[in-house]
Structure formats: structure tokens, C-alpha cells
């Protein structure tokens, strides 16, 4: 039995890859992360919207494509491979998933239809539910939010935010409010946005079903974790490919370094470690929509395992490149840093393994 991407999923993934190869070259990535004066990231994002990434998970009744999470995973893999400097996980995966499971029919119609038409772009700040810090937290009273949330995803260019408290209740708020402050956080990964969100008597609307159970926020977090795992797989594959190509070209002692046994073994180990991760992430994405009993465990397992494997691949690929691997000229560090931050966002491997264990008790 073959389990993998369908012809349609592969076709869509290839289109995203080709678009990024043409419009998000490494030189453009360098310009974007240093000083995006020409707004290149917005241009790249608009091209991806033209391909339909914003409507992947939106039901047809609200103007979307009504595809499953496996389709989104194939896109996330392509975005990671091209180290795309554009939002995807928060606005087009986590937000639609949360609203579908937690929103009332009126809320779904209002928000999902406007995500599909690109009128609304959501950022997501669920860190207070995943792992609340001592000096942070979100409180909700009289339809107002107070407190702060760390590591909100894609909040900078968002029109709306989804924020959560430690109970798992989800709130919708507009970013243009004067009662909200969005502070950019400096991370090693310059290709994506992470923010601290500070709320002071901020008007907010609760997604109705999020107060009934934790299931909606868990579904959204699981979807995000699978997307990050897929992103890391794409980034890892690019690092493997770059290492192999460099080993064929770089000569030492009159021979390509790829002819030396040590380098051969490193490249073979990277390929062998990465290959099973594809099926793991694909199966986790499939379970999310079609096998609810396995869904949580597989999402946690995929995020934790891929985080460890991709970390090793990032290290070995850099070692194959030698000193060149650390230079900005080559740009390998963009994939290296992306993998490193994917490992921590929405839960470190240690935290996620603990959650996976609890699903089996």
C-alpha cells in the first residue's frame, strides 16, 4: 500500500516550489531580512495568495477550497524548502482550524469568509495555554482582555488576532485598537515574525465553543505543530540537497570531497534519517482530519521527532560545507535557524513528548 501525497497535492506543492524558486531567491531573502524597503515579502506573499493558500482549509460554503490538513502540509513543506519569508501557519492553518471548531455559525461565516477573500489576516498567540510564564498571562472580563502574550505568530501584518488564556478560551480582537501594543521579538529566524502582544482593556469577542472544552484550541495547536514539522522537513531536504551538491563540487587534495568516506557517510545518514519523516508527518496530517483517536498523539510525535531529526541534519549539512556553511554568502544559515526555531515554537520536543504520553494514559 502506498501512502503519500496525491497527484493534486504534489501538483500544488510543485507550483509553490516553482514560484518560490523564481520569486524568493536567496538574494531576495537577504534583502528582506536586512531591510525590506521595497516590500518584497508582501509581493511574494501576494503571489502565494494568488495560488490560493489562504483558502485551503476554509469550507466551500465560506468561499474556500475545503481541503484537508495533508494538503496544507504539502504546502508548508514547500514553504520551508524555499525558506519563504511569508506568513502561513498562523493565518491560514491555525486560525481557520480554531474558528471552525470554536466559533458559532455566525462567527464562522464572518471570519472564515473574510480569510478566504483576504479581507482578514489573523495572527495567533496561544503561548499562554501551551506554557504560561510567571510574568505573563491573559485575563478576560466584561468583554475586555488584559495582560500579555509572548511569541504570537504573524501578528505584525495581521488585521485580527486570536489570543488564548490558560483555560484554552480563544478570543478575537482587532490589531488596530489603541489598547493593544505589538512588540517585535528578536529571534534567530529573520524570515518570520514573532511578537509580544500587550493588552489593556482591549475589546475582544470570545469564540463561543472555546469555553465548552479545550478541544478547539488543541486542534488548532496540533495543526500548527504538524505544519511546523512539515516546514522543517522541507528546510531539511534543502539542506541535504545543498550538502550533496557542494560535496560534488568542492575539491580537496585534487578530489571532490564527496569521494571521501566520512563525507559520504554524513550525506547518507542525513538522507536515511529524513526519509521516514515524510510518512510520519503525512500520517499525522491525515489523522488530524480522519482519525481523531490518533490525532493528538501523532501530531505531538511528528513535531517532537522531526524537531530532533532536522536539528541533526542542519548540523551535518553545515559541517559538510565546512567554513562556507557559516557565511552569509552561501545563506545556509537561513534554513539552519528556521529549523532551530521551529523546534521551539508551539512546544519544545520535551514538552510535546510529555503531552503525547498523557494522551496514552
Mind explaining what this structure looks like?
- The structure is a single chain.
- This protein has 361 residues and is α+β, with helices and mostly antiparallel strands.
- The protein has three domains: 110 residues, Butyryl-Coa Dehydrogenase, subunit A, domain 1; 89 residues, Butyryl-CoA Dehydrogenase, subunit A, domain 2, CATH 2.40.110; 145 residues, Butyryl-CoA Dehydrogenase, subunit A, domain 3, CATH 1.20.140.
- 56% of the residues lie in helices and 14% in strands.
- The chain has twelve helices and ten strands.
- The strands form three sheets. Strands 1-4-5-8 form a four-stranded mixed sheet.
- Helix 1 packs parallel to helix 4, helix 4 packs parallel to helix 8 and helix 8 packs parallel to helix 10.
- The two termini are 31 Å apart.
Tell me the layout of helices and strands:
Blueprint: H1 7-23, H2 26-35, H3 40-51, H4 69-81, H5 89-102, H6 105-116, E1 122-125, H7 127-130, E2 137-141, E3 144-153, E4 160-164, E5 170-174, E6 180-184, E7 194-203, E8 205-206, H8 215-249, E9 251-252, E10 255-256, H9 261-290, H10 292-321, H11 332-344, H12 349-359
Parallel strand pairs: 1-4
Antiparallel strand pairs: 2-3, 3-7, 4-5, 5-8, 6-7, 9-10
Helix pairs in contact: 1-3, 1-4, 4-8, 4-9, 5-6, 5-8, 8-9, 8-10, 8-11, 9-10, 10-11, 10-12
In brief:
The protein is of the alpha+beta class. It has helices at residues 7-23, 26-35, 40-51, 69-81, 89-102, 105-116, 127-130, 215-249, 261-290, 292-321, 332-344, 349-359, and strands spanning 122-125, 137-141, 144-153, 160-164, 170-174, 180-184, 194-203, 205-206, 251-252, 255-256.
Amino acid at each position: 500500500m502506498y501512502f503519500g501525497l496525491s497527484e493534486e497535492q504534489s501538483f500544488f506543492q510543485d507550483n509553490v516550489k516553482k514560484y518560490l524558486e523564481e520569486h524568493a531567491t536567496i538574494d531576495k531573502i537577504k534583502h528582506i531580512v536586512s531591510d525590506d524597503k521595497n516590500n518584497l515579502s508582501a509581493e511574494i506573499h501576494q503571489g502565494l495568495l494568488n495560488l490560493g493558500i489562504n483558502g485551503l482549509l476554509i469550507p466551500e460554503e465560506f468561499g474556500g477550497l475545503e481541503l484537508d490538513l495533508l494538503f496544507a502540509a504539502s504546502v508548508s513543506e514547500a514553504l520551508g524548502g524555499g525558506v519563504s519569508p511569508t506568513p502561513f501557519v498562523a493565518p491560514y492553518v491555525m486560525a481557520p482550524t480554531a474558528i471552525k471548531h470554536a466559533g458559532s455559525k455566525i462567527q464562522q461565516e464572518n471570519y472564515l469568509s473574510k480569510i478566504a477573500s483576504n479581507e482578514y489576516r489573523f495572527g495567533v498567540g496561544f503561548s499562554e495555554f501551551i506554557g504560561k510564564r510567571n510574568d505573563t498571562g491573559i485575563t478576560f472580563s466584561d468583554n475586555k482582555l488584559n495582560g500579555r502574550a509572548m511569541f504570537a505568530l504573524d501578528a505584525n501584518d495581521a488585521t485580527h488576532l486570536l489570543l488564548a488564556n490558560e483555560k484554552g478560551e480563544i478570543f478575537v480582537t482587532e490589531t488596530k485598537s489603541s489598547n493593544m501594543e505589538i512588540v517585535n521579538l528578536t529571534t534567530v529566524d529573520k524570515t518570520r515574525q514573532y511578537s509580544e502582544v500587550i493588552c489593556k482593556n482591549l475589546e475582544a469577542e470570545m469564540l463561543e465553543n472555546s469555553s465548552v472544552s479545550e478541544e478547539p484550541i488543541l486542534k488548532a495547536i496540533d495543526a500548527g505543530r504538524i505544519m511546523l514539522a512539515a516546514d522543517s522537513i522541507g528546510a531539511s531536504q534543502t539542506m541535504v540537497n545543498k550538502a550533496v551538491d557542494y560535496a560534488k563540487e568542492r575539491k580537496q587534495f585534487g578530489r571532490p570531497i564527496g569521494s571521501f568516506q566520512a563525507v559520504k557517510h554524513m550525506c547518507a545518514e542525513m538522507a536515511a534519517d529524513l526519509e521516514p519523516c515524510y510518512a510520519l508527518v503525512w500520517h499525522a496530517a491525515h489523522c488530524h482530519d480522519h482519525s481523531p483517536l490518533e490525532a493528538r498523539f501523532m501530531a505531538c510525535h511528528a513535531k517532537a521527532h522531526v524537531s530532533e531529526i532536522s536539528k541533526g541534519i542542519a548540523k551535518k549539512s553545515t559541517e559538510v560545507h565546512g567554513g562556507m556553511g557559516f557565511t552569509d554568502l552561501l545563506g545556509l544559515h537561513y534554513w539552519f535557524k528556521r529549523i532551530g526555531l521551529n523546534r521551539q515554537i508551539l512546544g519544545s520536543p520535551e514538552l510535546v513528548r510529555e503531552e503525547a504520553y498523557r494522551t496514552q494514559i
